[in-house]
């Protein structure tokens, strides 16, 4: 059974640009959550999608957005990139509410 | 209210020893408490999880102890091995979907 797949693995962008990250969940999982991981702030919840609807949202500015498609694949977008957006972005999938969440390997975003 | 506090920040244990990592929470609505293990360059991997209706759960060398009245839970790694050297995160979830609140992490080093 394939795990959670995130693409790309690494990304370098310039300040002010926008970026789109992709996440393919484990087959059958309908919930996809996104997290930002930095050395200073640790793992912080961005948002969760379930059946194409945003179910939860963390405390991030509106520059961070996401969506989920009918096949449960999800994308997150960050517009007007700032240096502080440099982080490991992790996607987790789960079957549904309050069930085991499995993480992908993450996308390492560097903003220069 | 949403925080999960984890300690210690770093831990050095001799091979064969017991590693103990502690977490505390405030939100009594949390009802699912997973532990994740993360190696450098990898996403977090689910290790073991517990719900508040049990006080202890054991899987192999890993045990979670849960104290509902004290709002604390801990991870015990028995017979610690150098291969266990990683960063460990506790987390908590309120029954509202896939939003996990993570502790700050503990960097474990097991010396041979």
Index terms:
heterodimer; A: 112 residues; mainly beta; 4-stranded antiparallel β-sheet; B: mainly beta
Q: In summary, what is this structure?
A:
Chain A is mainly β and 112 residues long.
N/C terminus separation of chain B: 40 Å
Order of helices and strands of chain A: EEEEEEEEEEE
- Main sheet: strands, sense, barrel of chain A: 7 strands, mixed
Shape of chain A: globular
Percent of residues of chain A in helical segments?
A: under 10%
Average predicted local confidence, pLDDT of chain B: 94
Low-confidence stretches of chain A: none
**Rounded to an integer, what's the Rg of chain A over CA atoms?**
13 Å
Q: What oligomeric state is this?
A: heterodimer
Count of alpha/pi helices of chain B: 0
| CA(first)-CA(last) distance of chain A | 37 Å
Secondary-structure-derived class of chain A: mainly beta
Number of strands of chain A: 11
CA-atom Rg of chain B in angstroms: 13 Å
Largest sheet of chain B: 6 strands, mixed
- The number of helices of chain A is 0
* Beta-strand content bin of chain B: over 45%
Sketch the topology of chain B as an H/E string, one letter per element.
EEEEEEEEEEE
Structural class of chain B: mainly beta
The percent of residues in helical segments of chain B reads under 10%
Hey, roughly how much beta strand do the residues of chain A contain? over 45%
């Amino acid at each position: 059974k394939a795990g959670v797949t995130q693409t790309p693995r690494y990304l370098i962008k310039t300040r002010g640009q926008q970026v789109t990250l992709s996440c393919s969940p484990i087959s059958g999982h309908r919930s996809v959550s996104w997290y930002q991981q930095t050395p200073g702030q640790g793992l912080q919840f961005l948002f969760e999608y379930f059946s194409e609807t945003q179910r939860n949202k963390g405390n991030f500015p509106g520059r961070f957005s996401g969506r989920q498609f009918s096949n449960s694949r999800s994308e997150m977008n960050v517009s007007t990139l700032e240096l502080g957006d440099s982080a490991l972005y992790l996607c987790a999938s789960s079957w549904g509410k309050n069930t085991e969440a499995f993480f992908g390997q993450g996308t390492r975003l560097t903003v220069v | 209210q949403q925080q999960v506090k984890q300690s210690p920040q770093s831990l050095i244990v001799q091979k064969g020893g017991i590693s103990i990592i502690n977490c505390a929470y405030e939100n009594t609505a949390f009802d699912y408490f997973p532990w994740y293990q993360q190696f450098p360059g990898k996403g977090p991997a689910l290790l073991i999880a517990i719900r508040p209706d049990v006080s202890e759960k054991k899987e192999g060398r890993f045990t979670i102890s849960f104290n509902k009245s004290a709002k604390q839970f801990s991870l015990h790694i028995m017979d610690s091995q150098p291969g266990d050297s990683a960063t460990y995160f506790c987390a908590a979830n309120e029954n509202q979907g896939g939003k996990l609140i993570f502790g700050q992490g503990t960097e474990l080093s097991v010396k041979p």
